[in-house]
Amino acid sequence: MQPTEQDLHVEIAKAYEPQAIEAKWVRRWEELGVFTAQVESAKQPFVLACPPPNVTGSLHLGHAVNGTIQDILARTKRMQGYEVLWQPGTDHAGIATQYVVEKKLFREQGKTRHDLGRDAFLEKVWAWKQESGDRIFEQFKRLGASLDYTRWRFTMDEGYSRAVRRAFVQLYKKGYIYRGNRMINWCPSCLTSLSDLEVTTREQDDALYHIRYPMADGEGALVVATVRPETMLGDVAVAVHPEDDRYREYLNRQVQLPLTDRKIPVVADSYVEREFGTGCLKITPAHDANDFAIGQRHGLPVLNTLTATAILNETTGQYAGLTREVARKKVVADLESAGFLVKTEPYTHAVGRCSRCDTVLEPYLSDQWFVKMHELATPAIQAVESGRIKFHPSRWGDVYLDWMKNIQDWNISRQLWWGHQIPVWTCAAGHVTVEQQDPAACATCGDNHLTQDPDVLDTWFSSALWTYATLGWPDATPELTRFHPTQVLSTARDIIYLWVARMIFTSLEFLDEIPFSDVIIHATILDPEGRRMSKSKGTGVDPLLIMDKYGTDATRFWLAGAGTSSQDVRFREEKIETYRNFANKLWNASRFILTKAATKADSSRSLPAEVSTVSSPIDRWILSRLHGLIRDVSAHIDQYAFADAISALYDFTWNEFCDWYLELAKPRLESDDTAVRRVLAEVMDTLLRLLHPFMPFITEEISQQLVERQWAVSSQTLQHRPWPQFDPAAIDLEAEGEMALLIGTVRALRNMRAELRVEPGKVAPEVRIRVTRDAHPAFVRLSDLIARLGRAERITLLEDGQIVETARSATAMVGENQVILPFDGFGDVLEREVKRLQKEVGALEQEQTRIRQQLSNESFVSKAPAAVVDKIRARGSEVAVQLETLERQLTAWSNA
After folding, report:
1. Percent of the chain at pLDDT above 70?
2. How high is the pLDDT of residue 806?
3. 669: three-class secondary structure by DSSP
4. Which 8-state DSSP code applies to residue 497?
5. Residue 327: CA atoms inside 13 Å, Cβ hemisphere, count?
6. CB–CB of 255/264 below 8 Å?
7. Residue 90 CA, distance from chain mean position
8. pLDDT, position 598
């Protein structure tokens, strides 16, 4: 059915209003179930497992970058004919969630979790999760993320919890999980061990205390330097470098530990840095990971001086019961009073803090559950070395391999209540039972009075199963068979160790297959000054506010390019504003096409332009450039080079299509040229499909306008349309070369007119072009267009080598062709330009004089920084070149 004249004149909004259109399409996509993956589909699967955001979280810039990257891939692959599953979900975020709910509990009721008890507290957490825990769900929709929302998973839902237990039990029974006493990151406030990712490190101003340790035999003393003098109460040795000649005579002797009655040995260890402090290192194995390693090498005892809440314990004598901070002041005062404090100096160092409560962490020796990693790491290393798994950029694969080859055992226990409680039960006799289902009795002695380990598993243990537990593992579900392994994982570099590596080794261990074949490590968006963004420092950027201000499409367009950069990228709001202008340009182009080009009924309007039937060189040019764009954008997406794809799309849309082709098409549209309408329909429809993965909302809206007017194939959404196919036959280098001459010539004329300040409406009586033999036929065909676009009455073509007077003209080169714009007909333009040049020459002469005076001043040259002098010399050279050029032009025009 053809549209009526009334249909063709339906008013299209003059400006693109993103908020209303975005909300409409979010609802529409959900109603149509566009993003729901079909298990029964015969299409080739393409699967992405979205990194699960914390259940406590809201959309931040990292989510927005990563979500945009994944969505571009998901939308592109759907259009390319794949059955796409983009698996969503949230992580229970053990310590973060418990911290949030504990704060809420104390704020509202003045109670701690211990006041409620474990079961009652967990009820509170679940209630909070149901009420507030899925808000990021809606925020991802605002981003346009085409996740399969029907498959949303949570790392503590029933099925997932069963997978976690299965994984623990299987690893335990194979001998990979054990309980051991190790040094860990400990938060004295949250009372739990922490992973490295849960540690925030920042610089802190402190003091470096130099303390004299007298030799036990009364002959001499060693001086140690420390920022934590209170820990000396747990010292068990002093270490020096074995090659440090200063301390060779002190080896195998003992020192008297100040403020105590203990004597401790002097040992030699190559870990000691001879250049740091005094070159003597106090060894406190219970409170420093490196000291613990030294103590293990030398068979030293471990003396813990702190309670779990960082209070000095009974081993510290008179200091017992003091906090770390109070004890430090008292110890320093006592050292000074007793004559042991040599000196104090300012010292700045990095201090680890809990990322949730900001408490200074303690290296703490504690009984924890660990996973033996060396055997499990071997196949995970081979998977990357063999190329079965590729990192993009590739350097992150080297980072991964370096860490995996030096991997340490993994601490998987946390002293929390919220999380997967460790499935280990102990009877009164101390027998251990480890099973997937809660046991009724001890597996060894039958005792039915069992106590489950109170710890929970590290959140990363459960998220390590993400790619397959979300699909129903350990059951052999249709989803697991159909959609695993996945194809692409996109994530941040911060969690290569904590998550990516663990997903790889667990998938190889439990399924004997890799979890994904490609890993994209997206760039980090820095603040405008180049610092990592921080909410606490006020340098964070809320992507929701940016989307409100500029529209989601413009925000995504920038995020995609920035996120796939090979380097970290500074946040640039003005760049997003540029892409909002781009969206408006696209909208206005479509509005022109649909209100102007479609004002006359045309039965062939909806048909695509077949390359073989296109005769106009201008049409052949735009179709050639369009198919070059299809080829390039498709390749860039395949290579995850989104910045290159965006650059190509931007340049084609703004410059070639909107600025040139539409301008050239206007007269043909007025003459009812059917061919140009068909080409416009083809280009606009194809361009929208190419842009759609990057800018889904505006492209969807415009596309449906095209469909309504039968300028595009009818479909519910662009996700139901095929990805454009590159046709080599469409590439027309002759047409592209001819258009390059046209565009170059018109730009040269427009630039000369602008430089001469010629009124826009003024028509030049004549433009002369000295052309090469090869270019002559093209310029003959292009003359009328050049005259119209360059605002000239006539174009005179001169043979190459033909002499023509150019003194009263402006000239420019277009390749080997010279474009000459005579001043005749422009009134007093020559006189005005002579005056302008004289003024510029005068200013440059004054600057040159000033520079010469500076450089001839020996006192200035000798005292000024070398960089300043070099900069002045460089500017002097620039001024000389500029003066020579302007004086030559001034002479020519003055004599004209």
Report:
1. 95
2. 59
3. helix
4. I
5. 23
6. yes
7. 19
8. 56
